[in-house]
Structure formats: structure tokens, C-alpha cells
Amino acid sequence: MFLFDLFFQTTTEYQSFNSPEVSDCLFSSEEDSSLYFTYSGECNELEVTNLHYEVDTAAQIPWYEKLSEFKLPWELKGDKQTAINDLSLRVRSGQMLAVIGSSGCGKTSLLDIITCRDEGGTMTSGQVLINGKRNTPQLVKKSIAHVRQDDRLLPHLTVRETLCFVAKLRLPTHFTQAQRDQRVDDVIAELRLRQCANTRVGNDYVRGVSGGERRRVSIAVQLLWNPGILILDEPTSGLDSFTAHNLVITLSRLAKGNRLILLSVHQPRSDIFQLFDLVVLLSSGSAAYFGAARDMVPYFTALGYPCPRYCNPSDFYGRCKNDFIGYF
Ligand SMILES: Nc1ncnc2c1ncn2[C@@H]1O[C@H](COP(=O)(O)OP(=O)(O)O)[C@@H](O)[C@H]1O
Ligand SMILES: [Mg+2]
User: Fold this and answer.
1) Sheet containing 80-92: which strands, arranged edge to edge?
2) Separation between Cα atoms, residue 32 and residue 70, nearest integer Å
3) pTM confidence score
4) Which of 109, 119, 122 is the pocket-test mutation for ligand 1 (most atoms within 8 Å of CB)?
5) What pLDDT is stored for residue 212 in this prediction?
6) CATH code for 41-327?
7) pLDDT grade, residue 266 (50/70/90)?
8) How many angstroms is it from 66 CA to the middle of ligand 1?
9) Coil, helix or strand for 248?
10) Of 52, 55, 57, 99, which is best to mutate to test ligand 1, by the most ligand atoms within 8 angstroms of its C-beta?
11) Which pLDDT value is given to residue 264?
12) Average pLDDT over residues 20-33
């Protein structure tokens, strides 16, 4: 029993009890393996100012489906919906910014606008600046790694094969094979994928690594080319709480290694919330709060809306769309 407790106190690693690494974990601290994949490039800054984004929901209905309305094309009115309203934020290297809020509040839209992948909408005002320059697809490709919510990986390759394949395609041509292999090993170590490195990735139909491991492979694919800015859309969705917590710990370590991390999370647990440096709380596309994560509860308490005892702040304030819309 003592050994069991000691294991969980000593390490937060997601390890199997049969793994040979367990004995190492028992007697080593978290610090030993961390931060050797530090980003050594220049500091980055991401700024969004007064962003207003509208989507035309009517434009997505094909013209032939509208024929039933017996109207000529110029008589059809667009159906505009505001997805993001007057949003401003700023984050720089070394910080982890979490975009939190209920489903449909505009988290994915925001990340897609930043990475120039928004479709079906228009930015009516505001701008997105990466190191003071407007975001263009070329600039985004050079400086930002975007991990989307769905894992787009080849199911029949193993984790190591996937990474070697991407290393061949994505790393600069002057890299030697030995350097590419070294980079793959570094990423596998950084994202704790050693135990499943030779397992097939799999998907919904092909059994492979676990869901949490597959999410980490998606992150590893992006981390391979050592980006300074990492953007992740709901990286913890679909994961159990223990794996989700470990994943955010990994992201927090990456942020401390001089990276800029921007992620969206749908109402995180309180232990995950504590790991964030900055938080944007979105409510129907508007920012209800932007600032340090630890100041969020005092901010709302000062406004007269304290978080009830034993209640998770992101659960409580994340409901603002439905319950508190009047006062935010
Ligand atoms: N291209 C689009 N076409 C139609 N509606 C969209 C589009 N993009 C976003 N929306 C709408 O904007 C809102 C925010 O969507 P989204 O950013 O995906 O929310 P979240 O990721 O927070 O769940 C939703 O109501 C969604 O229906
Ligand atoms: Mg989303």
C-alpha cells in the first residue's frame, strides 16, 4: 500500500505498472526528464485586436436547395450570425493561454482565424498579429503548429514510423538522417511515447494506441519541426481526466521551455485550470474575462459573483452563456 501511495506521490507519469520505467519513476523526480526540448528560437508574441467575425449560415445551403423557396437568387437574404465579437488578447512565449467556454461559444472559430483556416465566415473588423505582422498563410505555415481537434494520422503506421515519415517531409533539407532520427527520439521522449513507439497508430476501425496516446502523437507530429507557437483545439476532449491532466502538464512544460501555447478547452477540471497562465473566457463569442488564470475568481467575486465553495470555477463561470448572460 505504501509503495502504491509513493508511486502516485513521486510521479505524475502515465505509466503501466509492468513497464520497466516504473522503477525509474519511483525514485526520480519530474524535473529529470523535462525541458530538454526547449525552444531556442526567438520569442514570439501573438496579438488579437478588436476581432469581429461573422458567419453566413445561409450561404452554406446549396442554391438548388433554395429553389423550393420560389425566390430569385438576389431576393434571398443572408443569415448573418456573429461568431466572435470584439475580442482582444495578447500572449507571448513562455505563457500558456487557454480559451475556455461552453460549446458553440467560438473557440474553434478563434483558433481557425488565427491560423488562417477559417471557412465560411468573414472578419468584419480587427486584426491578428504574429510578432507585429499580420497573419498570412505563409507566415502561419512558418511559425505556427496547429493541432486540430480530430487526429489526422495514417492508421497503419506505428508511432515511430509516423514521426520518421513526417521528419523526412517536414524538416529542412540540410538535416542529415542521423539528425532526423535524433529529433524523432527527442519528441518521443518529450511526449512520453516510448512505451508505444512501436505500436500501430490505428483509428476508429483499426485498433492501435489509446486515445490519449493518439492525441500525443498528433502533438508530436507538430512538435517535430520545433515550432515557437503551438495552437491546439480541445486537446483534452475525449480523454479521461488523468490522461487529460498529464497532457496539459506536458503542454505547460513546453510553454516553460520558451514556447507560446494557445489551447481551447471545454470547461477544464480545477487541477487543469491551475496550470494555465492566462485565460480567455468566451461567452457567445465575446470575452467575459481575459487575464491571469489565478485572478479570474477574484475578478468575478469583486463584481459580486463569487464562485460557490467546492465548485469548479470553469464549470461555474463557463455556464455564463445560459445563466448569467444578463450581467456579463
Ligand atoms: N463556417 C461556419 N458556418 C456556420 N456557422 C459557423 C461557422 N463557423 C462557426 N459557426 C458558428 O459559430 C459558433 C461558434 O462555433 P465554434 O467556434 O465551432 O464553437 P466552439 O468551438 O466553441 O464549440 C457556432 O454557433 C457555429 O455554429
Ligand atoms: Mg470547437
Assistant:
1) 80-92, 45-56, 121-130, 133-134
2) 70
3) 0.80
4) 109
5) 82
6) 3.40.50.300
7) confident
8) 22
9) helix
10) 55
11) 94
12) 42
